[in-house]
Design brief:
alpha+beta, five-stranded mixed β-sheet, Alpha-Beta Plaits
Length: 379
């Protein structure tokens, strides 16, 4: 009863799809045309087969509609057009099949079951295509993320790659090279979320157990504030700004600032701008040497009582910071000038000529800076 209608139904469906869906209003040629023809033909053939045997296994026939879903993604379309095509096909198929069934004298109950079967079947086709689309989307995103990671790794290479290498890798990752870049360091566990919430155009990779995010044009109007707000509540650090061939420099600075934040030597929450803390970072990177220097320079007060040790350490730091000016020292320490002069005399008894030598005063100042938790744990 229904089989003789199939060729006419298929032709009408194909014509209506071309007329009603702008994305499909093109000559049905090449792989696109073959896919549409096959999809319509398979759908009608499978439906007739299911009418004959409702328990038939259609797993093998699902492939056609999974492939159609994948094709929509490859052609840059959403699934809306394909879903509309399925609905058009169901509408036309039902109208033609219902007319043939009435001519054959089928009762209303049978027609109702037939209609339900058509629309249930179309839902199954739609689900198959959705699966194919999602699978292709996942693979496409995976390939894009892999190329982005490779690009970040390339820009971090030492020695720096040629610009032509970066340009070639950027084309492969569909990434537009910005005029300037900065690296942000974060916890590896935060990398996916940080990359997602930052402004469009960032690319990222895991580097030596930490997250590295390359941020385009970080000094644009309002850009730093935007990034800071996005990263609030997370431990992150941003390095220097430079061209794509200098991302490695930015990363080294950002990574040092991040490590310092984790250790407690810098603020441990939110975005830290590494270039605002260069002195602290220099000390942090040299913490082992400074610990050794402290041991050497603090020898004159080593045997003092804890209270006297703390008082003379405080006085020595004030001395070098104020170039030995007793009045300034008194103000900074909130003590009487005469007390400051007394303490200076005591310093000279303990440290002798070291207080007059610029290099030793610098060594003394470095030694007297309060050690961070990270420095203490490292020694």
């Amino acid at each position: 009863m229904i089989e003789p209608e199939l060729s006419g139904i298929a032709g009408e469906i194909l014509e209506s799809i071309g007329q009603e869906i702008p994305e499909y209003a093109q000559p049905l040629e090449g792989s696109f045309g073959r896919g549409v023809y096959r999809g319509v033909g398979e759908a009608l053939g499978q439906f007739i087969g299911l009418i004959r045997n409702p328990d038939a296994d259609r797993r093998a026939s699902r492939k056609v509609y999974v492939i159609l879903g994948r094709g929509e993604l490859r052609n840059g379309r959403s699934l809306d057009s394909l879903q509309s095509a399925y609905r058009i096909g169901a509408r036309i198929a039902w109208r033609r099949i219902a007319a043939a069934s009435l001519d054959a004298g089928l009762d209303g109950k049978t027609l109702s079951l037939l209609a339900e079967s058509i629309f249930v079947y179309i839902d199954e086709l739609s689900a198959d295509s959705t699966e194919g689309y999602a699978d292709a989307q996942f693979k496409q995103q995976g390939a894009r993320l892999r190329r982005e990671r490779e690009l970040v790794t390339l820009m971090l290479r030492d020695p720096a790659p040629e610009i032509s290498e970066i340009e070639q890798a950027a084309r492969g990752a569909a990434w537009q090279i910005p005029k300037s870049l900065a690296a942000v360091a974060c916890h590896e566990r935060d990398l996916a979320e940080v990359t997602r919430i930052l402004p469009i155009g960032v690319i990222s990779a895991t580097v030596d157990g930490s997250g590295c995010v390359a941020i385009p044009d970080p000094v644009g109007p309002g850009r730093f504030r935007q990034i800071s707000v996005s990263l609030a509540g997370r431990t992150c650090a941003i390095g220097s700004v430079g061209g794509p061939d200098r991302l490695a420099e930015s990363w080294q600075l950002a990574r040092t600032a991040f490590d310092a934040s984790v250790s407690g030597a810098l603020p441990a929450e939110g975005l830290v701008r590494a270039e605002d803390h260069l002195v602290d970072l220099a000390l942090f990177r040299s913490r082992d040497l400074i610990a050794r220097l402290r041991e050497q320079m603090m020898a004159p007060i080593e045997n003092l009582t804890p209270k006297a040790h703390a008082r003379m350490s405080e006085t020595a730091l004030a001395y070098v910071e104020n170039s030995g000016n007793a009045a300034e020292m008194a103000r900074s320490l909130d003590i009487h000038p005469q007390t400051a002069r007394y303490r200076i005399a005591r310093l000279r008894e303990l440290f002798g000529e070291d207080l007059d030598r610029p290099d030793r005063r610098l060594a003394l100042e470095l030694s007297l800076r309060k050690p961070s938790r990270g420095e203490l744990s490292a020694n």
